[in-house]
């Protein structure tokens, strides 16, 4: 008879997250992106160029210095579908000055 070794430390509970592919491609909503960037010249221009290149309007943006070397950029986009938003994020992610990118949770109206 084979003995089944039980792992003493049980795996952590997995919390389900909303998976992007379950979001309807037709639903549009406004997204707010935050980018933690290494501060420098021309950064905002490069970011807005990517967003405008996707045919998306920026409703507003704000920049806050975190410390001497970093800044937090908050950009509110017009209502777009999930695939369009995803495309923008995928183009922003590889930029060498972007340290972190995340989305602000949507406001309940």
Weakly predicted, low-confidence segments: none
Radius of gyration: 19 Å
Gross CATH architecture: 2-Layer Sandwich
Do you know the CATH topology?
Alpha-Beta Plaits
Alpha plus pi helix count: 2
Distance linking N and C termini: 61 Å
Question: Numbering strands along the chain, what is their spatial order in the largest sheet?
Answer: 3-4-2-6
Oligomeric form? single chain
Largest sheet: 4 strands, antiparallel
Keywords for this structure?
2 helices; 109 residues; 20% helix; four-stranded antiparallel β-sheet; Alpha-Beta Plaits; alpha+beta; 6 strands
In short:
The protein is of the alpha+beta class and about 110 residues long. Helices cover about 20% and strands about 30% of the residues.
